[in-house]
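Dear support,

I submitted the protein below through the web form. The confirmation email said the job was done, but the results page showed an empty box. After a refresh the structure appeared. I'm attaching both so you can tell me whether what I see now is the final result or a partial one.
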Amino acid sequence: MEDQRLEIIVSYLLRVGVGASAALVLTGGVLYLARHGSAVADYHTFRGEPAGYRSLSELLTLETLRHGQGLIQLGLIVLIFTPIARVALSLIAFLAERDRIYVAISAIVLATLLYSFFSA
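What the results page shows now:
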């Protein structure tokens, strides 16, 4: 794959990822404010996140996505996964080019990103 073509594909991937993330966060923010905008904040009592927002499988259920907070969190996950997808795409391109050094570097970076995301 040509370097210029790869750069165009990567830039498109990054634009789509950031744009989708922004759309999800904006939609979730509008929904959240429409439902809870007039609520008074109570900072004296800490309330943790509901269980539906703590795992990716629970977050992707339709019930969770109907609420603004679920869409906001999904948008943030899309934003986090965008650079991970970029590294994965680069790894595939370097594999196609048989560039062993960049394959090794990309694989290490991808493994580090995935480990840091899923171990938290």
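Response: this is the final, complete result; the empty box was a page-load delay. The CA atoms of residues 21 and 75 lie 4 Å apart.
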